[in-house]
Amino acid sequence: MSPAADTAALASTSGAPLAPLVAAQLNFVLSQANLPIRVGQIWSGCRDGRYADRFTLAIPFCLDYVYWDFLYNALSPKVAPDVVFGPDDEGFQPLVDFDETGSGEKSCLANWDCRDTGALLSLIKELREFYIEYQKKRAAEVDDARLKFEISTVLSKEGIEVCMVSSNGRPDEVKFAVPLLDLDLAKLVPGCPWKLPQKIHLQAVFPISRSYSSVPSAPRLKLVSTPDLKSFFSVDDVKLPPWLDGMCMAEYLPNLEENLKIQVVEASASIGSRRRFIEALAPTFGRPLEADPVHFVIPLQFPKQQPVLTLESSQHFNAQGLPIMSAPVNDYPWSPRWDPTEMVERIYDFLVDECQTFKKFCSDSIPQQK
Amino acid sequence: MAVGDDAAPAATKISISGAALAALLQRCAMADGDCDGLLSGRASTTPAPPPSLSDYDDHTPAQSVPAISISISGHSSLSRPSSLSDPLGRFHPSAASAGGPASIGFFSSRRRTALRPSMRELSLAHSLSKSLSLTHPLLFLLVSPSSPNLSTHSYDHRAFLLIGSRLVPTSLDVVNVGPVFRDQYHSFAPESPMPWLPLPQPSSAAAVGDTHTIGEQNAVDGMVEGFGLGKLQGILGSVAGQAAEMDGMYAGMLRRLEKLAREVEKSNLLVLKQENRNLLLRTLRWAHRDSHKSKSTHDEIKQ
User: Fold this and answer.
1) Measuring CA to CA, which of A94, A119, A221, A296 is 20 to 30 A from A18?
2) Would you state the pLDDT for residue B228?
3) Which residues of B touch A90 (CB under 8 A)?
4) What is its main location (chain A) (predicted)?
């Protein structure tokens, strides 16, 4: 996001600008955080409402967001902000814990410097860490033998987040967000434009069962990826290995990760082969194309799946004055084992015949319209 | 000490007089931004209500726990925000809070925010409760004033008690004049270091001065040294004399009012009598006219 866009996004509901010292800190959060933090409402807590000084931030947690209100004071912007957490988190008391453990001096609030633009980001990071621990503690207190086992075996995995999910009318559940694949995806994709680190998570939602006799039901499993990753690898196409009765996550994860790793490596290899294919197209098809243009849609699973071709006429137009297009073609001869040049040549050969059919199709469709 | 005491003080009653609440809300509304401060008042343990006589044998004395009654009498606050605590929510006593009347808790006012304790308020509640060494749960009053325009003000407020490690929402009674108000007096114990000074009798004026004990004189010396009890009683006597004169004048005014009221009553009675008479006359006249009318119509029909 450009700085100009940031500033535009920070307009409060009443139109009052954020107090300058506060705006600097919030802008820093939006431009520098390696988490997708979003700003919700911005408003003023002053009587005259000249400067806005409080805002809601959506902070990513456990594949969802928590909404925290940050309260500054426009009249004394040097004072550290206070935070109001969500209505279900009244047990989350980070400052009380500081006092009890005597670790308050380590907090960024102990030496709050209003001119440090990174101060708010440090506070958010600090509170988020505490919140992750708080939710882990809550989940560990749940009286469910299977969950206790899962937590004791998996919770040490780095970056794992757990939370209690309670919804009206449904029994409580515990949600795990397990980061998968310990590799830097940005390195697999040369020249990638991603600003934030990309990650694939396994979301596992365990129902809490209070009875010990019954066989615990399987968790609801789902792969979730960060949004930018979708252009490179679609987690929706991944078939999850089945969850067997009596299984635990520590058993399930290695298998899944291995499976996923192969597919991700394939996907990154596909980028290279797509690029080579595109490069091979130019000598055969010419640049610029003077004949009827051909559109190539190259799937993420290239070269396993062949490109989808669409022909566009440069001489025939439909009633709306738009060039006539062919139906998508993907049933022409193909082998993923051909090298890019052969692929292109085969497509070219196919198109030489297909062009005649398309031309006939175009001239047939014109008299019908008249 | 109530901190960490998990026993549910089910019978904690919190009240604030209308005037004290009005003053507090005024303070919150007039602040340009957020403000906070200490609440003063007193807590008393009212003895368990006498066992009610019941016809049922299974009546269990469940209400034998003594009830705590906390009443807020006022507040003190500084003009700067977050005056009570550091950014970590640790209480730091300031000039305003030291040496004041007994603190029972604190209040916080923040505009247009959720009526839930914030991170810092929760921490302050813990810290303050420790440093005040209260014998009852600490009280926290959260106020959210809003003034959409300058002529209307609305206030949301919610009271909390620090029970265990949490601030639990509690109901707050606003006491105005009325039957509920009497409870305030029942839990009130007059305590004064001043000795009892009976009104000097004009006849025994000379004997005054010797009737006081050394203890009473010491109590007065604690406040003003070298000011004789006799002198104090003299002041009191002259004031009492003035008060008696004022009472006399006031009684005279009341008598005069009484007399006027009687006169008004008498004249009202006369007016009423006259009106009744008029009414009677009017009815008679109408009756008379009607009989004439009916006669003439009879004549027309005949013709």
Assistant:
1) A94
2) 79
3) 116-117, 166-167
4) cytoplasm
Encode pLDDT of B105-135 as tens digits: 999 999 888 999 999 999 999 988 888 888 8
Q: Name B132's bridge partners.
A: none
B56 occurs within a structural domain: no
pTM metric for this prediction:
0.70
- Preceding omega of A288 cis (within 30 degrees of 0): yes
Range of the domain at B166: 12-47+66-186
Please, what are the domains in chain A? Answer: 3-125 (3.10.110), 142-271 (3.10.110), 288-369 (no CATH)
A347 touches chain B (CB under 8 A): no
Helix orientation angle between A94-101 and B119-132, rounded to the nearest 10 degrees: 40
Nearest CA among B5, B6, B52, B11 for reference residue B171? B11
* Partner-chain contact B31 A47, CB within 8 Å: yes
Comparing C-alpha atoms, which of A51, A1, A59 is closest to residue A23? A51
Read off the tokens for B180: 């509920």
Of A45, A74, A109, nearest to B110 by CB-CB distance is A45
In a domain, B174, yes or no: yes
Cα separation of B199 and B292, whole Å?
82
CB atoms B87 and A75 under 8 Å: no
Answer whether residue B253 is part of any domain: no
Is there a contact between B111 and A74 if contact means CB atoms under 8 Å apart?
no
User: Mind telling me how many Å the CA of B99 is from chain A's nearest CA?
Assistant: 26
C-beta atoms of A71 and B89 within 8 A = no
A22-31, A247-256, B270-279: range with lowest mean pLDDT: A247-256
B116: chain A residues, CB-CB within 8 Å: 84-85, 87, 90
For residues B27 and B77, give the distance between their C-alpha atoms in angstroms, rounded to a whole number. Answer: 9
Contact between B119 and A94 using a beta-carbon 8 Å cutoff: yes
How close are the terminal C-alpha atoms of chain A, in Å?
51
- Match 């890019």 to its residue by tokens: A340
Longest dimension (CA), chain A: 87
Do A84 and A54 meet the contact criterion of CB atoms below 8 Å apart?
Answer: no
Distance between CA atoms of residues A56 and A60, nearest Å: 13
Residues of chain B that touch chain A, judged by Cβ-Cβ distance less than 8 Å:
31-34, 80-82, 87-90, 110-114, 116-123, 126-127, 147, 165-167
CATH number for the domain that contains residue B179: 3.40.140.10
Residue B269 lies in a domain: no
Q: Which residues, in sequence order, are CB contacts of B167 under 8 Å at separation 6+?
A: A90, B117, B121, B122, B125, B140, B160, B161
Identify whether the C-beta of residue A345 lies closer than 8 Å to the C-beta of residue A335. Answer: no
Q: How many helices (H) and strands (E) would you count in chain A? A: 8, 11
In chain B, residues with a C-beta closer than 8 Å to the C-beta of A84 are 113-114, 116, 118-119
Percent of all residues in chain B with a pLDDT value above 90, rounded to a whole number: 22
Query: CA-to-CA distance for A97 and B88, rounded, in angstroms?
Result: 11
As for the ipTM of the complex, it is 0.75
Cβ B229 vs Cβ B198: under 8 Å? no
| pLDDT-based confidence at residue A370 (cuts at 50, 70, 90) | very low
Residue A221 to residue A206: CA distance in whole angstroms? 9
At residue B109's C-alpha, the angle toward residues A7 and A25, to 5°, is 25
